Amino acid sequence: MTVFIINDVNKLGTIHVGSSNPVRIMGIINTSPESFYKKSIASGLRLAAVAKQMEEQGADFIDVGGMSTAPYLSTMVSEKTELKRVTDAIKIIQKVSNLPISVDTCSAIVAKGALKEGVEILNDISGLKYDKVMLDVVSRYQPSLVLCAHSKKPVKGNNITKTRELLRQSLDLAKAAGISRKNIVLDPAIGFFRRSGTGPFFTKINSDWVERDLLILQNLRLLKSGQPLLVSVSNKSFIGKLLKKEDPSHLDIREGLTFDDVLLVPKYSNITSRSQTSLATKLSRNISLNIPLVSANMDTVTESTMAVVMAREGGIGIIHRFLTIKEEVNEILKTKRSGSVMIEKPYVIGPDQTVNEAIEYMQEKGVSGLLVANGESKLACRNTDITRCTVCRLVSSCKRCYDKGRDNCKTRNQSW
Fold first, then answer.
1. Same domain for 119 and 176?
2. I need a labelling partner for 92 at 20 to 30 A (CA). Which of 142, 216, 272, 371 fits?
3. pLDDT tens string 114-135
4. Do residue 141 and residue 214 come from a single domain?
5. Distance in angstroms (rounded) separating the CA atoms of residues 251 and 273
């Protein structure tokens, strides 16, 4: 999958991207057997099933490629072969899905053939720089564009600055072809900047490619140039480097599920003891969980109460984003406080405060108990079970204070 990072409002085909629109997802279908990621390769009946599944699972676009452009593989095929693969796939997808289709190609011949079949989006990883005839095709058919950062010449210097310059060059080419910037999305080309490669579609750099990709991902906002960004990171080899998996096709990336309800169907199991099982997993390299459950940060799902419950069960809660910074900090402090073995600054009430005041204070601070202390911050008693006079409502924390309170009761003539 490819993920859109939303910035300014634009359209790809009929779909609005950017601004307050939701993050958009692009499903990738490769029809090239030479592609490094074999699970992405589809044709015939399987292609139709994959396209339907992508639409059902929430994809907003389907991107079709007929030739692998991986910079470390020798995968060039003829334009005739690429065109047949792409047009066959487009016809199959159009029969089973109404999603806008994007064609991933740097060839003007392939682009023209796809656009004639009704494709709305051209995804050119060369940023319109590989095929000189491409501008004529774009000018005639006026598709929406995804433009990648690309240079035929070696690039030196600051990777962010150079990537931004290359993207602006492609924007100028699109403008010359009459394409409105409202129909353009930019791609910083994760995985395509290398010291060396075997194909014509990578940009040569003199720095480490993994460091370059991570730097770009950390500074996406500096690259937008007023356009939304498309970031293609699924199964890219930099993930393999981070996970120390050299072969990107063998990445053991576990599936994450979101759901409304889960139905557990009882079945026979060879497991005879709980000690034989473990639900432990990792949320990230440094965050371990005892159970693979996370409460989302969407809407108002997770605040301190939910986060505390999730943590105590072995999972984790991510505080939602619809709070001010001060409110977020307060929720986090409440969550951390609940897990402290020793509370350095406990919440305290005085012995003369009423139960109602204590209850209000506990609700305000999100706690279930308070210490009772005098003006010198000394505990009034050790037993914190709250008792009180049924008439004057004075707080007494233990039987000794309760009995003493009889003499001090404001309505001592009344029964206790």
1. yes
2. 142
3. 999 999 999 999 999 999 999 9
4. yes
5. 31
